[in-house]
Design goal:
About 70% of the residues lie in helices and about 0% in strands. The chain is mainly α and about 90 residues long. It has a domain of about 55 residues. The longest helix is centred in the C-terminal third of the chain and has 18 residues. The termini are far apart.
């Protein structure tokens, strides 16, 4: 999941392959459990590791959507990060 987003990016994902795999597993488990709060946090973490702005914006968008769904307190911060990337208007 994260490794696919890192393809085509300038540079490699700022995480080891083992770390990416662990984050991928955590995201998949949170999806299986329907845990929107955890998904917001996990996608935000993944976004912070992406050297490519488009990949980071994609993951931040996912984080923001799940934060909205969960009523997560990080929602305003995630929206601000998206705005800083020019990905939210």
């Amino acid at each position: 999941m994260l490794s696919r987003l890192g393809r085509g990016a300038v540079g490699a994902c700022a995480m080891t392959p083992r770390g990416r795999a662990a984050l991928d597993r955590a995201i998949l488990a949170a999806h299986a459990q329907g845990d929107a709060a955890a998904l917001a946090e996990l996608y935000a973490r993944g976004a912070g590791l992406m050297p490519d702005r488009r990949a980071a914006a994609f993951l931040l968008t996912q984080a923001h959507v799940f934060a909205l769904e969960a009523g997560h307190p990080a929602e305003p911060h995630l929206r601000a990060r998206l705005q800083a990337l020019g990905a939210e208007g």
